[in-house]
Design goal:
Layout (H helix, E strand, L loop, with lengths): L2 H4 L11 H10 L4 H14 L4 E3 H8 L9 H11 L6 E3 H13 L2 H12 L6 E2 L1 H14 L8 H12 L7 E2 H10 L1 H12 L1
Antiparallel strand pairs: 1-2, 3-4
Helix pairs in contact: 4-5, 5-7, 5-8, 7-10, 8-9, 10-11
Protein name: Neuronal calcium sensor 1
Keywords: Calcium, Lipoprotein, Metal-binding, Myristate, Repeat
GO molecular function, one term: calcium ion binding
Length: 192
């Protein structure tokens, strides 16, 4: 069972409104039947239609039983929570799931950039990258080798093409697409 489906196991079902289905079909890679199934599962766990950070952390944590998921869950939650109101609605949830599971490489890279851009200023600083990479290391517990700071130094040196001490969305996405080492380094953080 994949992470997205386990995040939605629970209690009671309902149906999406026709207008919501049309809107989400236009904004996601899911058809109306898939959207209805996802929604039914979502409202089982979140009958009021909103997922709190604690609910998200509890469900997400099932996938990482050995490490400390606290910080990484905070960062992921903040990307899912588009309007930054402290809860994830079904629309926010399904759009993030659509991008991360079915999106194009550009959509996935933009989503990943939003994860690393903690303060939402349009740039990733070394400190932000270190926060995310460290959270990933802690998430995986003792299963990852190396030093997060060293890895960040290597990534930052390759991604910051204009040497302005910050990585733009364009630098992040282009670096990932054109440099096999960057691709391997960033992807390995999620799979080790």
């Amino acid at each position: 069972m994949d992470i997205a489906r386990v995040l939605l196991m629970g209690r009671r079902a309902s149906k999406l409104k026709r207008d919501d289905i049309r809107e989400l079909e236009a904004q996601t890679y899911f058809d109306s039947k898939q959207l209805q199934r996802w929604y039914q599962e979502f409202v089982k766990d979140c009958p009021n239609g909103e997922m709190t950070k604690d609910e998200f952390a509890k469900l997400y944590g099932q996938f990482f039983p050995t490490g400390d998921k606290t910080k990484f869950v905070d960062y992921i939650f903040n990307v899912f929570d588009e309007d930054k109101n402290g809860v994830i609605t079904f629309k926010e949830f399904i759009k993030a799931i659509s991008i991360t599971t079915k999106g194009s490489i550009d959509e996935k890279l933009n989503w990943a950039f939003d994860l690393y851009d903690i303060d939402n200023d349009g740039f990733v600083t070394r400190a932000e990258m270190l926060d995310i990479v460290t959270a990933i290391y802690v998430l995986h517990g003792k299963t990852m080798d190396g030093d997060p700071s060293r890895r960040v130094d290597q990534l930052f040196a390759k991604l910051d093409s204009d040497s302005d001490a910050r990585i733009s969305r364009e630098e992040f996405c282009e670096g990932f697409k054109t440099d096999p080492w960057i691709r391997k380094a960033l992807l390995s953080q999620y799979s080790e």
